[in-house]
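Budget justification aside, the reviewers requested a transparent look at the raw inputs and outputs of the sequence design task funded under Objective 1. We therefore reproduce one unedited record. The lines immediately below are the structure tokens for a 518-residue chain.
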């Protein structure tokens, strides 16, 4: 008997099908991958299972009985847990309080000590080590994910839904995470994992269901298929055989950081420590490192969001330390943030309105403080066509971006920031949460910018992405540059050493002038 059967599930929004006649079956002790492009209906299907949405048609059988989950609380009480792509944790509360919050355990007096002991036992059993009394805001992204999984296990979940669980993890954290999944599988838990990464599907899953345009197009036993076959069914075509031809960088400096430091918001410690770095025209400079080692701060001091406390930043030969975010953008510095919801989009605004957030107050989009809607909509229509942006419903470019999938939201940002005027593109995790087709498109777009003589500072937790795109690679550790590697000499082993805090000098046992990025 299957642990879960979803039969002929249908769900529409504003007359447009998000799921149409979708069936899915998951056994106990099975890791089932759900694969599909952005907007294919994967998250909608899981939100129906978790009680966030109600289906318009179809049937759910859970543990052999007909089920209709009216709310997430209803699904949780029946043994279903879901870890969303964007975690649902209260940052100002402790790990313990987040886990027991809303757990539904009926006791007049909560025994916090007993709850903490139970959480510690679960953490030890599954290798999800985290301090129950630590505040969530002080945890790394990987540690926050452990809290989400512990929360589901504390609530006795038999079926776990994981939405893009490795999108924010380093390679080491991903490997540890897979070990956790294997333990859960051995104990008979059912696991549904939504991911775009074919290598991870091949490594961890037992079965794969592919969705395309809201329909289930194919089921596979993982060991009987290949990444190429999965890709072809997912996007309806094979991936391009390779990257576009790579032109050599121009020996002319676009961006230079000299001794740039940034103090943390509280205390005297530094988020960035004496960064010296050069980006050439026509170059992609990759920034690798375990997340939380200064990548966010580096991107924000370059784009003007934060004011560095020491050093000087030059762009095309001019010191820009006193320049505002707007002034730097007008000079040609654009920014693709790693947090699209917090930094890059106004969720209630339309595609058109988000497209002109940077330029609404200048021609051709406005004159004498009057907005030219026709020009704005013309820009949005061009972006939708060029970037393949899928909007929701019949509203088209007037669709609020909050109704679009994460990947299509990211495409709106890309189309806005990679403008003809942009000469330096600071791209932080530009493919996070994107499917392989959209990722391929982003990679080709960045390479096209490079080949046109523009500069790209690529910050990514995906080492494969860094290695395939970068001309040179700088590695950050605790706000310092451990070393800068040319494309030809870079490999995962060397980068891994620097990510762990080993400098180029220590690795070679020789004096080194590039420890600060030279």
């Amino acid at each position: 008997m299957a642990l879960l059967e979803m039969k002929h599930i249908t769900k529409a929004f504003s007359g447009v099908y998000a799921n149409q006649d979708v069936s899915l079956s998951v056994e106990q002790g099975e890791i089932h991958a759900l694969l599909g492009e952005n907007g294919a209906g994967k998250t909608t299907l899981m939100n129906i299972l978790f009680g966030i949405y109600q289906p318009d048609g179809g049937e759910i059988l859970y543990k052999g009985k007909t089920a209709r989950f009216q709310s997430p609380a209803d699904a949780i009480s029946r043994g279903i847990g879901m870890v969303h792509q964007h975690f649902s944790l209260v940052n100002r509360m402790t790990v313990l309080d987040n886990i027991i919050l809303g757990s539904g355990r009926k006791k007049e007096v909560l025994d916090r000590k007993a709850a903490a002991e139970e959480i510690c036992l679960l953490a030890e059993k599954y290798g999800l080590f985290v301090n129950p009394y630590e505040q969530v805001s002080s945890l790394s992204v990987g540690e926050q994910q452990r809290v989400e999984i512990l929360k589901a296990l504390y609530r006795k979940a038999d079926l776990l839904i994981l939405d893009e669980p490795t999108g924010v993890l380093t390679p080491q954290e991903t490997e540890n995470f897979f070990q956790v999944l294997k333990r859960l599988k051995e104990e008979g838990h059912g696991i549904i994992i939504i991911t775009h990464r074919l290598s991870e599907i091949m490594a961890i899953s037992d079965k794969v269901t592919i969705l395309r345009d809201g329909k289930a197009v194919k089921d596979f036993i993982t060991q009987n298929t290949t990444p190429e076959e999965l890709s072809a069914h997912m996007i309806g075509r094979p991936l391009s055989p390779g990257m576009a031809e790579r032109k050599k960088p121009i020996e002319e400096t676009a961006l230079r950081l000299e001794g740039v430091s940034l103090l943390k918001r509280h205390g005297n410690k530094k988020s960035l420590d004496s960064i010296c770095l050069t980006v050439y025209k026509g170059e992609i400079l990759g920034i690798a490192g375990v997340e939380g080692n200064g990548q966010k701060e580096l991107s924000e001091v370059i784009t003007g969001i934060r004011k560095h406390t020491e050093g000087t930043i030059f762009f095309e030969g001019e010191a820009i330390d006193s320049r505002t975010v707007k002034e730097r953008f007008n000079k040609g510095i654009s920014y693709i943030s790693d947090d699209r919801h917090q930094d890059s989009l106004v969720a209630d605004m339309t595609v058109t309105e988000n497209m002109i957030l940077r330029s609404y107050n200048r021609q051709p989009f406005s004159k004498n403080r009057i907005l030219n809607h026709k020009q704005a909509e013309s820009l949005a229509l061009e972006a939708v066509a060029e970037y393949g942006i899928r909007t929701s419903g019949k509203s088209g470019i007037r669709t609020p971006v909050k109704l679009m999938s994460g990947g299509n939201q990211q495409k709106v940002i890309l189309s806005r920031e990679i403008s003809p005027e942009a000469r330096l593109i600071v791209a932080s995790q530009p493919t996070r949460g994107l499917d392989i087709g959209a990722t391929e498109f982003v990679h080709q777009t960045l390479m096209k910018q490079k080949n046109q003589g523009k500069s790209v500072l690529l910050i990514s937790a995906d080492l494969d992405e860094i290695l395939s795109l970068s001309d040179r690679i700088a590695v950050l550790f605790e706000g310092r540059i451990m070393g800068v590697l040319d494309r030809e000499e870079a490999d995962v082993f060397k980068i891994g050493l620097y990510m762990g805090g080993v400098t180029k000098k220590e690795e070679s046992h020789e004096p080194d002038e590039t420890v600060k990025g030279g």
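The longest strand covers residues 16-26. The two ends are 62 Å apart (CA to CA). Computational costs for records of this kind are itemized in the attached budget.
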